[in-house]
Write a structure and sequence with these properties.
Blueprint (H helix, E strand, L loop, with lengths): L18 E5 L13 E6 L5 E5 L4 E5 L8 E5 L13 E7 L4 E6 L4 E6 L8 E5 L3 E6 L4 E6 L4 E6 L5 E6 L13 E6 L5 E5 L4 E5 L7 E5 L13 E6 L5 E5 L4 E5 L7 E5 L13 E6 L5 E5 L4 E5 L3
Antiparallel strand pairs: 1-24, 2-3, 3-4, 4-5, 6-7, 7-8, 8-9, 10-11, 11-12, 12-13, 14-15, 15-16, 16-17, 18-19, 19-20, 20-21, 22-23, 23-24
Length: 308
């Protein structure tokens, strides 16, 4: 899957003013609006798929069409029926089946929606779990963060049994624990990165490890370059450089492999609605060219920052 191959130079910089590529027209449920965007996924052709949390739907914005999005899942009111979503938090595209895999959080399930036809049967992949984040590796194993148990699980698609890959030792701040694991990234070696939100850190769990490594933050809540405050979306490039949506600091941070502190690559200009500002971040991703996409939750928009 292409996001493993994003090659961002070590000295890269991004435009400091973002461009709104989805939403930005106030909070609402029209097709040009979003209401608390959470997780997002950028496809090969720069199509962006967004979990529109408060509207209970998944929106798709095609590259170049910043006026209106398309509802591609949900949007049929709150409820537990198969065609409904309630507070979705993350989404990914499974290219092999051309379908969306969605964490339908408040319905406590992970569901699959076909992108091919509105009449194709959708299905529940996993149920009775309070999920948040999703990832898929290049062998099509599905990774799910289970916030109810403070752990991350790996599933073979279509199977209910799982392998524990991070956490699972109760809520806490030990190296073998997590406290509200939200978003995930899985690299080519099946190492799992987790935004450990309430511990204000990002953890890396090497494949088969029984405890994680702190790769960003972990110095308490704060806005120093050594700190994160409620980190959310994460992404790792080909050089193993980590990018973090540092939600309560309203900035995107970049942490080189082994670094003790990060650098600010976008935002960090206080809370606000300016082109160089955010108001509580959620999902974060890149396209194959290295452009940065951020779900700016309380501004009800998705911003793109072009690589320079």
């Amino acid at each position: 899957m292409f996001f493993f191959l994003v090659n961002i130079p070590g000295n890269a910089k991004w435009a400091q003013n973002g461009v709104t590529i989805a939403g930005g027209n106030g909070r609402g449920d029209d097709t040009d609006q979003l209401s608390s965007p959470f997780g997002l996924f950028v496809d090969d052709d720069q199509t962006v798929v967004i979990t529109d949390f408060s509207n209970g739907r998944i929106m798709q914005w095609k590259n170049g069409d910043t006026t209106n999005g398309q509802v591609v899942a949900g949007g049929k009111g709150k409820g537990k029926r198969l065609r409904q979503l309630e507070a979705p938090t993350d989404v990914l595209i499974d290219k092999e089946t051309d379908s969306l895999i969605i964490c339908d959080r408040n319905n406590r399930r992970v569901v699959r929606w076909s992108r091919l036809s509105d009449t194709t049967q959708d299905e529940i992949l996993l149920d009775n779990m309070k999920c948040w984040g999703l990832a898929m590796d290049d062998q099509r194993y599905l990774y799910v963060s289970y916030i109810g148990k403070h752990e991350v699980r790996r599933y073979q698609l279509g199977k209910k049994n799982y392998t524990l890959v991070a956490g699972g030792n109760g809520k806490g701040n030990g190296l073998n624990q997590l406290n509200e694991p939200h978003y995930l990234f899985v690299d080519r070696q099946q190492n799992v990165y987790v935004s450990d939100v309430c511990n204000h850190r990002v953890m890396k769990w090497n494949k088969g490890a029984t405890e994680g490594i702190v790769v960003a933050g972990g110095q308490g809540y704060g806005n120093a370059l050594t700190q994160l405050s409620l980190p959310e979306g994460i992404f790792v490039d080909k050089l193993d450089t980590l990018y973090v949506a540092d939600s309560s600091n309203n900035r995107v941070m970049r942490w080189a492999q082994g670094a003790k502190q990060g650098t600010v690559v976008a935002g960090g200009n206080g809370e606000g609605a300016g082109a160089n500002q955010f108001q509580y971040l959620r999902g974060l991703s890149f396209d194959r060219h290295g452009n940065l996409y951020v779900a700016d939750m309380s501004n009800n928009r998705v911003q793109r920052f072009s690589i320079e």
